[in-house]
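2024-03-11 09:14:02 INFO worker-7 job=invfold-0412 stage=load source=structure_tokens
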């Protein structure tokens, strides 16, 4: 029997002699060699033989056998590390973060540097232990000083974010990442790409889409499937390059073939919407199903929506809502927002305003802009919930921090009118209208004009008011047209002009 899946296994230095001893360098002799080695391992309880057998079975997804062989290796640090990873990922064994931490700790205490790095990640994410950023930083420093590239990258990541008793140091972090990137580290190249793609708070000058694309391309050349997906995404958005759906599909497909789940989902969306490729609901559903089977919450959400609409599968609102709910419970903000809307409408689930608000807040706290705005509007107007201007302000401010012009405008309205008992504050109102107007928001341009016309929160300036009314009027905002016509009629801020007054008021 020929086992082709062992061809690509590359043994570490510790295993080179064993490979030669059992003839494992010849792929055609793998089965016999493994059998002989397994007999020897079981008889002699040789840790290295047990570990090598375990790793070979891992290569073939024989995870339960792999876990058994790692246990036979006892307290060998390499076996403990492998077992820790299996417990962490829930592969071949039940997922158990505490057991993973135990294994990594034992291996680290025995001097296994990769386990030191793995343990740092557990403390960073609070898996099996309480979140301890300082402890994570200490472990990353130790592993990094021993030459572990992944820990150097994680060390930079901690310094980028800071918090938990760790002071931010973006300059040092970026310098470290550049060093790693120059050494050909794909993870560092991806992280640098994301930094240049999105920028950093307080470091606007670092945002550079073209540089981001360059780093993603470097990471892709170093074999990173995620980088292929990110290149496709940039071509999809037209970031750092022009939008090119041929390249979008090509890069998504390459990434998906290499096992990138996000790429599978993105490709599924393209088939679903017919973007860059002929619309194919069944193909989309197939891709979503593949990603969902790997635990991707966004894929589960999309499948739920398709079930509710009957696209690519039999229509079933109840089952679709269940899938949306599953994705929401996994922390998918998009699913949480959708589930909230379903509870508001009573579609596929019971109509329940309290549950809707709960899921909107869950989504909002995860950064979903639509949920923030929806909550703000509900509490500002008292729609289906008691009017609560303070809660409205809370959610509008979160949305405003993301640059949402509508929320900025609504904040200005609350402070200009004193909604819900909020003290009237013309200056605050003016500043919110001004921020929203910078986005070209028509209502805010009009409100800003009213502020200048009345001298509310700013010195009265009818000329400036006319300019702002004109900008809002060009966006077909009727009240701005009327006010601009009135200024021409009265000769305020503009020269008296009856023809223009009539024209603007009629439009």
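2024-03-11 09:14:09 INFO worker-7 stage=emit residues=507
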């Amino acid at each position: 029997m020929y086992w082709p899946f062992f061809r690509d296994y590359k043994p570490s230095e510790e295993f080179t002699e064993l490979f030669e001893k059992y003839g494992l360098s010849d792929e055609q002799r793998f089965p016999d060699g493994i059998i002989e080695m397994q007999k020897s391992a079981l008889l002699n309880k040789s840790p290295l033989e047990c570990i090598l057998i375990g790793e070979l079975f891992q290569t073939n997804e024989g995870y339960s056998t792999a876990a058994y062989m790692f246990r036979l290796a006892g307290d060998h640090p390499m076996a403990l590390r492998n077992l820790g990873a299996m417990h962490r990922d829930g592969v071949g064994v039940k997922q158990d973060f505490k057991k993973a931490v135990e294994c990594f700790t034992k291996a680290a205490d025995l001097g296994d540097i990769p386990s030191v790095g793995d343990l740092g990640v557990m403390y960073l994410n609070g898996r099996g232990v309480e979140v301890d950023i300082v402890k994570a930083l200490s472990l990353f420093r130790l592993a990094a000083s021993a030459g572990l590239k992944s820990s150097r990258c994680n060390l930079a990541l901690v310094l980028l974010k800071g918090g938990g008793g760790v002071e931010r140091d973006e300059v040092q972090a970026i310098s470290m990442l550049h060093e790693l990137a120059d050494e050909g580290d794909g993870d560092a190249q991806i992280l640098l790409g994301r930094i240049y793609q999105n920028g950093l708070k307080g470091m606007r000058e670092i945002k550079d889409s073209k540089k981001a694309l360059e780093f993603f391309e470097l990471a892709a050349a170093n074999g990173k499937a995620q980088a292929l997906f990110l290149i496709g995404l940039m071509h999809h958005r037209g970031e750092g390059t022009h939008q090119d759906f041929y390249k979008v599909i090509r890069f998504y497909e390459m990434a998906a073939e290499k096992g990138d789940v996000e790429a599978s989902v993105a490709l599924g969306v393209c088939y679903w919407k017919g973007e860059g490729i002929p619309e194919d609901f069944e193909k989309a559903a197939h891709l979503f199903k593949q990603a969902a089977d790997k635990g991707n919450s966004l894929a589960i959400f999309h499948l739920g929506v398709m079930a509710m609409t009957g696209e690519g599968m039999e229509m079933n609102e109840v089952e679709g809502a269940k899938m949306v709910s599953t994705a929401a419970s996994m922390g998918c903000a998009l699913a949480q927002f959708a589930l909230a809307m379903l509870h508001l409408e009573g579609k596929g689930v019971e109509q329940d305003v309290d549950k809707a608000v709960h899921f909107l807040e869950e989504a909002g706290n995860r950064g979903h802009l639509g949920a923030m705005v929806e909550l703000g509007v509900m509490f500002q107007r008292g729609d289906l919930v008691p009017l609560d201007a303070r809660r409205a302000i809370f959610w509008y401010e979160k949305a405003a921090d993301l640059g949402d012009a509508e929320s900025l405008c609504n904040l200005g309205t609350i402070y200009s009118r004193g909604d819900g008992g909020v003290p009237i504050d013309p200056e605050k109102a003016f500043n919110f209208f001004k921020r929203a107007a910078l986005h070209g928001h028509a209502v805010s341009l009009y409100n800003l004009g009213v502020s200048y016309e009345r001298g509310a929160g700013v010195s009265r300036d009818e000329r400036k008011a006319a300019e702002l009314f004109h900008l809002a009027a060009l966006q077909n905002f009727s009240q701005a047209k009327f006010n601009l016509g009135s200024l021409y009629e009265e000769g305020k801020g503009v020269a008296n002009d009856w023809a223009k007054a009539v024209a603007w008021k009629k439009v």
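2024-03-11 09:14:09 INFO worker-7 stage=report msg="The radius of gyration is 30 Å."
2024-03-11 09:14:10 INFO worker-7 job finished
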